[in-house]
Specification:
Elements: E1 3-6, E2 9-12, H1 16-26, E3 35-40, H2 42-50, H3 52-59, E4 63-66, H4 69-79, H5 88-102, E5 105-110, H6 115-126, E6 131-136, H7 145-158, E7 162-166, H8 171-179, E8 187-190, H9 194-198, H10 207-212, H11 215-222, H12 224-246
Length: about 260
């Protein structure tokens, strides 16, 4: 699979057809460790640039999808290959269509109290027959070892094919990496704000704004106090470093990719 390095993080040139073909291939071996699908945007790249521990987490993902239209446009132009935006809400909607056809089992993990249940109700209404086998909102604090063991036992009992994880970035990707062997045989998808969108806690940007590359500005106007740093300072850090990279004035090494690529 072709990849492009954005200031130290490799991002896959991928389409939804290729994504779900790969998922189907992985699910043929339910005894293997689980797989990690991350959605990489400017915020993820900059946090990885500033923090080696976060960089290690994103670099270990089995698929790192471009969750940024500028990333998608750049990779299409540079590689000449088709590439889709792996935007968590769209991944979930596309997954539900495939899940109904192939009888995949889904589990929802994340969100505030009541949110995963509301998201489950929304998805079951939109996709009659979709098989969501469980939904759980974890406490804000870290789980104790006993609580985590009980959670893993319950999820393993339910045997989902996909676990949709919505804990916010990078917490959700860290959780996934920590549970790849504790909960084997699944595909775990880092899903960020999708839980809030599908439970109507947050208004999702109109489709035309999503495609324009300015969804970040729409979200900034909704929650400026929380998001100003991510969508102002981090954007500037990315643009400056990416310019240095493109002009070959600075080299950004990446960590070894997952062996699943």
């Amino acid at each position: 699979m072709e990849r492009y390095n954005f200031i130290g993080i490799d991002v896959d040139v991928i389409t939804y057809d290729r994504l779900f073909a790969k998922c189907h291939e992985w699910l043929q071996n339910k005894a293997d460790r689980s797989k990690h699908i991350s959605c990489v945007n400017v915020n993820c790249v900059v946090e990885s640039h500033l923090n080696p521990e976060i960089k290690s987490i994103f670099s270990k993902a089995d698929i790192s999808g471009p969750d940024s239209m500028p990333f998608v446009y750049w990779m299409r132009w540079l590689t000449g290959q088709p590439c889709d935006r792996l935007y968590a809400p769209d991944i979930i909607l596309n997954l539900c269509k495939v899940a109904v056809q192939r009888n995949y089992r889904l589990y929802l993990y994340g969100g505030a109290e009541g949110v995963p249940e509301a998201m489950q109700q929304f998805l079951e209404t939109q996709f009659p027959g979709v098989n969501i086998v469980g939904a759980y909102s974890p406490p804000f604090r870290p789980l104790t070892a006993e609580e985590d063991a009980a959670l893993c036992a319950e999820i393993n009992r339910l045997q989902p094919d996909f676990i949709i994880v919505g804990l916010g970035s990078p917490k959700q990707d860290r959780w996934i990496q920590d549970h790849l062997t504790k909960i084997p045989g699944t595909i775990m998808i880092a899903s960020g704000a999708a839980f809030d969108f599908f439970s109507n806690r947050i208004t999702q940007a109109p489709y035309w704004i999503q495609r324009s590359g300015f969804e970040w500005l729409f979200r900034l106007t909704q929650d400026p106090k929380r998001l100003w740093k991510r969508y102002t300072l981090y954007n500037l850090v990315f643009v400056w470093n990416f310019l240095l990279q493109v002009l070959r004035l600075k080299r950004f090494d990446h960590l070894p990719a997952s062996q699943s690529h």
